[in-house]
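Appendix B. One record, verbatim.
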Amino acid sequence: MAVSVRDVAVAASVSVGTVSNVLNNPAKVSPEMVVRVQQAIAELGFVRNDAARQLRAGRSRSIGLVVLDISNPFFAEVARGAEARAAESGMTVLLSTSDEKLEREGAHLELFREQRVNGVLVTPVGDDLARLRSLQASGVPVVLVDRETDDDAFASVAVDDVEGGYLAVSHLLSAGRRRIAFVGGPASLRQVADRLEGARRAVAEVDGATLVEVEMPALSVLNGRAAGEELRGRAGADAVDAVFAANDLLAVGLLQGLAVLGGVRVPGDMALIGYDDIDFASATVVPLSSVRQPAYEIGFRAVDLLLRGLDDPDGAHERRVRFRPELVVRESTTG
């Protein structure tokens, strides 16, 4: 059984209030009394329950983070940046994943509300932000991560994904590719839709260029492999000579489906570029070109925006942070 404050008070022959003061306001207690209580704490092995104390005060020292897919190294790096900034302020980050499912996202948000976290960072699954508005209305601040919105109620940290999609496909076009496939995930994901929009803009600028859109159920290696098998089976007018994958996990799977399993030469027969520039991108059998997002900085700045809002809710501090993507060229498009 856990040792309670009352047990410490009995062992030290003092009141519960005195033990509380020693723990929280030792200046109010005589040095002799502090020593007596600390000796009792050591003898009994008492450990204070900070979580319960913080909840009684009305708020924990935690920040909730909901990402689309924690198996994606991009989001793991976002979480690392968030934890670094939170630690500077003596806070912790509670990490969860929606697996790109609305119901799981909702369950995590409700749990964070019940735990009275100081705020929530979230990469929303869809465009309906009503659940997040409700969360804010209940007193839990929300910062959107890797996602922008026109709704002024939310602070956000994101990358210009339209520009990122444009960079990726413009690079393929500059290499002489004209029949390009875009392999994305669920259309409900704003990041995927924005990257597709950028790809379309780039193709529209070049006469004779075409864009084939291939939608997969998830942004995973397995789905990328399936897309690679489908694309390598195209022939004649349906064949493509380049692929833009909406993230690097898809690109890794595409490389497996095209080159490793299908004998397609990358980039000889088909050029391939991904998005995010995760660590694996440079370590694949054919190093992948990619569009880099500053994942660590995204997580760090998201917590920073949240904490500024908590410290000064009515202040004129920054509410929107938008990073620019960076094209990283490797052998999968130029070898």
